[in-house]
Amino acid sequence: MKDDARPVDKERAARAMRDFLEAVGVDLQAQGMEKTPERVAKMYEYLFNGMGKGTSDIWGETFDAGSEGIVAVRHVPFYSMCEHHLVPFFGEVSIAYLPGNGRVAGFSKFSQLVERLSHKPQLQERLAAQIAAAVRKDLGARGVLVVIEAQQLCMTMRGDLAHGTRTVTSECNGVFKEDTALYQQAWMILGGEKA
What are the pLDDT digits (tens) for 95-122? Predict the structure, then answer.
């Protein structure tokens, strides 16, 4: 995916936030609320700074691991915004991949990947698929398994009030989709039980 990020119109975003807050009855003249539209616009600029950006520039130099084994990065924290209600969902991403030709990336690159892809209006299922696709394409991985466990505030803040509920999604591709034994090995490395 090529980069086609557009600059943020902060003034327009702040005006729109001001209009929205006033439309839902918020008194912006109340103490502490005067600058809220500008603060919210600035916050959303950060929360959505992954929009329109590709992932190939994240990886930098790759290394020959001298191994053909599965590599895993577990419990990468993330925060994203549900595209249905624009409230947060957050949790952890775990990634297992089988390197192509033994080439691996630095571990910190995976947290950068997760941050880039989660910083946009997003769905948990799509986030898992995008992470798996990026690792496979960008690193030439033979197979990728991604597991995301998250809390969806749209479930816990609204009428459902499903406090403590966590959603788990997974996505796999390549040899992990084709070879049951490799899939089981990757799943167990990520902390799953044998299925």
Answer: 999 999 889 999 999 999 999 999 999 9
- DSSP letters spanning 3-72: -------HHHHHHHHHHHHHHTT--TTSTTTTTHHHHHHHHHHHHTTTTT--STTS----EE-S--S-EE
Rounded distance between C-alpha atoms, residue 47 and residue 29, angstroms: 26
Nearest C-alpha neighbor of 122 from the set 51, 31, 43, 17:
51
The DSSP bridge partners found for residue 114 are none
The string of pLDDT tens digits covering residues 19-51 is 999 999 999 998 889 999 999 999 999 999 999
Question: By the 8 A CB rule, do 131 and 117 touch?
Answer: yes
Give the SS3 label for residue 137. helix
Please answer whether residues 39 and 4 qualify as being in contact, where contact means their C-beta atoms are separated by less than 8 angstroms.
no
How far is it, in rounded angstroms, from Cα 54 to Cα 87? 24
Q: How far is the CA of 135 from the CAs of 10, 48, 49, in angstroms? A: 33, 21, 20
Residue 139 one-letter amino acid = L
For the record, the structure tokens of 67 come out as 């191994």
Of the candidates 67, 73, 80, which has an alpha carbon nearest to the alpha carbon of residue 144?
Answer: 73
Calculate the alpha carbon distances from 151 to 9, 32, 74, 84, 94 in Å.
31, 29, 17, 15, 15
